Amino acid sequence: MTKRQEKSVPMSSPEINEEDRQAVLEVLDTRYLSMGPKIEQFEQTIREFTGSQYAIAVNSGTAGLHLCIRAAGVEQGDIVITTPFSFISSTNVILFEKAIPVFVDIDPISGNMDPKQVEQAINDLKNGGAAAAKWIPRRGGEKPGAVKAVLSVDVFGQPADYDPIEKICEKNNLALIEDSCEALGATYKGRKAGTLGTYGVFAFYPNKQITTGEGGIIITDDEKAAAFMQALRNQGRAPGDAWLQHTYLGYNYRLDEMSAALGLSQLKRLDHMLQTRAQVAQWYETYLQEFDLIQTPHILPTTTQMSWFVYVIRVDASLDRDEFARRMIANGIPVRPYFLPIHLQPYLMEQFGYQPGDYPVSEDLGNRGLALPFSSVMSEEQVMAVCEGIRKSL
Ligand SMILES: *Cc1c(COP(=O)(O)O)cnc(C)c1O
């Protein structure tokens, strides 16, 4: 289906072409449907693209983040500093290990973790006592362990402010996990997203910049960690283990060959997809100018290359975002509140006693953010149709 034939505007859409289809079909004629040459090629291509020493393909971005948490040695009761303004999995992987996520609030412009608060939290937690207590959740953090890692998220395709975050992590000997699942191809002061921490993770769900259906990949320069994560994704088989020998508690986090072949084919067009996404964002920026009650995304000067993942507007505080969203949907335009802050998800409130008001900047952005339809195959007419929907709904 070409862009022109599409009648309604979808929330997101992968861009699949004939070459992608052939790439997947060819795998089906080989004897390798898993653990074959496509995975290796996919990993090599990502290594070349990022300049990282190691790349480990896995079957989701969440699986990749989980392996980073394991590689960082995060265990029960340990603390990981992270952001509540993210997709749920960046916190879930901490909870998988029964560790304690300590949230810090975000920069109101980018929506990324505020480095000053990261530093404050780490120093306070080191000093203990009342200063430390104000960072620990009301419940479920009775005997907090050491701070083990910082997990930062490149929200909506824009890298966080890594210079200060890296410095803090280095000074305190902490692993830095970069959740770059939304930021493949972005750069921070010329450096590629995903390479800014000890570990970086990209994801390939169909709404991401490139897709493998389900899938993700970890990059790192740490040889030992890479070997450990390779073992964990493959049921804990260490190098040299026989098929039924398992050195570690592992998982089946392997990516299959069809998915890797699709990813390889998609990667060839990454530049093109990033450009077309940037073009769609530019159309939005232009056509949204006329609406005083709508704020468009802000790109920081440190973001030398934006990798547009979603297009999230902020509605004016005087506007009822949820009512506006209902009207948009009634007008045939799909929209989605983005993000619902993680600390206010029911099971986190239950387990840790979080309350509204705990992270006011995250909550403010969460209350005003609305993702508009966005993909690399959107036409200018579709962008105009969305903006017409906005006019009607306001
Ligand atoms: C997409 C995404 C992930 C990973 O999602 P999967 O569906 O597991 O691939 C992780 N973190 C963020 C911020 C994401 O946007």
TrEMBL record:
Catalytic site: 208
Family, similarity comment: Belongs to the DegT/DnrJ/EryC1 family.
Modified-residue entries (N6-(pyridoxal phosphate)lysine), positions: 208
Gene3D superfamilies (alphabetical): Aspartate Aminotransferase, domain 1, Type I PLP-dependent aspartate aminotransferase-like (Major domain)
GO molecular function: pyridoxal phosphate binding; transaminase activity
Protein's name in the database: Putative aminotransferase
GO process terms (BP): polysaccharide biosynthetic process
Origin: domain of life: Bacteria
Keyword match Transferase: yes
Signal sequence residues: none
Keywords: Aminotransferase, Pyridoxal phosphate, Transferase
